[in-house]
TrEMBL record:
Residue intervals of the HTH lacI-type domain: 2-59
GO MF annotations in UniProt: DNA-binding transcription factor activity; transcription cis-regulatory region binding
Name recorded for this polypeptide: LacI family transcriptional regulator
Lineage: Bacteria, Bacillati, Actinomycetota, Actinomycetes, Kitasatosporales
Gene3D superfamilies per the UniProt record, alphabetical: 3.40.50.2300, lambda repressor-like DNA-binding domains
Residue ranges, compositional bias (Basic and acidic residues): 322-339
Record region (Disordered): 314-339
Listed SMART domains: HTH_LACI
Keyword DNA-binding: yes
Pfam families: LacI, Peripla_BP_1
PANTHER family (alphabetical): LACI-RELATED TRANSCRIPTIONAL REPRESSOR, LACTOSE OPERON REPRESSOR
Length: 339
């Protein structure tokens, strides 16, 4: 079946222009008769048929909000998505979720499909990986879409133009490391991360800064993932070392849970023998009573929906979070001491 993008490419116009012509929603953005004829001819040539979503468009947009998630199995993103879905339902919108597996090629493809279906806005949950093949192509696609009026929101640092509603990852990790130092720990290791993944790199930087400021050498291991298995293997490596640490900060709660498993399997006690802390404050972490920095994950999702559905002249509905077009930064510093 021909897609809206196929029509746009044949007519040599943008997807947005093709959508406006075919959905009769171009009154506020008029196009020339030549462009209109080209789009209609391309659609007829390809046998293009509008989807149900396309037929329901109003002013060029539907009641759909697209969500592109880095990993839907990660509870960190699941809580963001839950916040998006609840807020979207409250204002009569439906969310369409696409899992991208941290692959910029998949992100680009799914972003294009969501645009073709006239999504009111598209939310990216998760950072990009700097230098990853396809990242530049994705950035160009998103930048073009934003320039054409698509509302794009990022809930993590990204390398393209969008409104960002994010936590300050460096400040968060710095605050957690300072907290562990205040508790008396000195040989603090850091586990987990992915080279080039912006959020993870910023957390490592915050940890390193806090360690250097107190005259301690940082020790980072397991920079090959942010999963429970990563945490388990990194912790096993640390425990086998001649000088194991007295505490471990993990890049997220999933990594910390894997770390907990390795420590229990080694017959050690937490925190008597070694302490563990994570970042995220996810429901899974709460089950294990994990010491963690709690981030406002569901609130980030709600703010993303608020930005997408509100009219241009309406103020944001988050008086405790200074939202402005382009970038919003919020760091939650509340640490729960459980273990």
């Amino acid at each position: 079946m021909a897609t809206l993008r196929d029509v746009a490419e044949l007519a040599k116009v943008s997807v947005t222009t093709a959508s406006r012509v075919l959905n009769g929603a171009d009154e506020s953005h008029p196009v020339s008769s030549g462009v209109r004829a080209s789009v209609i001819s391309a659609a007829a040539t390809l046998g293009y048929r509008r989807s149900a979503a396309g037929r329901a468009l109003k002013n060029g947009h539907s009641n759909l909000i697209g969500v592109v998630a880095s990993d839907i199995l990660d509870p960190y993103f699941a809580e963001m998505i839950r916040g998006i879905e609840i807020a979207a339902a409250e204002c009569g919108h439906v969310t369409v979720l696409a899992n991208a597996n941290r692959d910029p090629h998949q992100e680009r493809t799914k972003f294009q499909v969501l645009r073709e279906h006239g999504a009111s806005g598209i939310v990216f949950c998760g950072s990009d990986i700097e230098g990853s093949p396809g990242t530049a192509d994705l950035a160009r696609e998103v930048n073009r879409a934003v320039g054409e009026g698509t509302r794009v929101v990022s809930l993590a640092p990204r390398g393209f133009v969008s409104t960002e509603i994010i936590v300050d990852n460096e400040a968060t990790a710095y605050a957690l490391t300072q907290h562990m130092l205040d508790l008396g720990y000195r040989d603090i290791a850091f586990a987990g991360g992915l080279p080039g993944l912006t959020a993870a790199e910023l957390r490592i930087r915050g940890y390193q800064r806090a360690m250097y400021e107190c005259g301690r050498l940082p020790r980072v291991v397991g920079r090959n993932g942010m999963s429970q298995m990563t945490g388990r293997e990194a912790t096993q490596q640390l425990l086998r070392a001649p000088d194991p640490p007295d505490s471990i900060i993990c890049t997220n709660d999933e990594t910390a849970i894997g770390s907990l498993a390795a420590i229990w399997q080694a017959g050690l006690r937490i925190p008597d023998d070694i302490a563990i802390a994570g970042i995220g404050g996810t429901a899974t972490g709460r089950v294990f009573d994990l010491t963690t920095i709690e981030l406002p994950l569901a609130e980030l999702g709600r703010l993303a929906v608020d930005y997408i559905v509100r009219k241009p002249d309406e103020p944001p509905t988050a008086p405790d979070c200074a939202l402005r077009e382009g970038r919003t930064t919020r760091a939650t510093r509340a640490v729960r001491d459980s273990v």
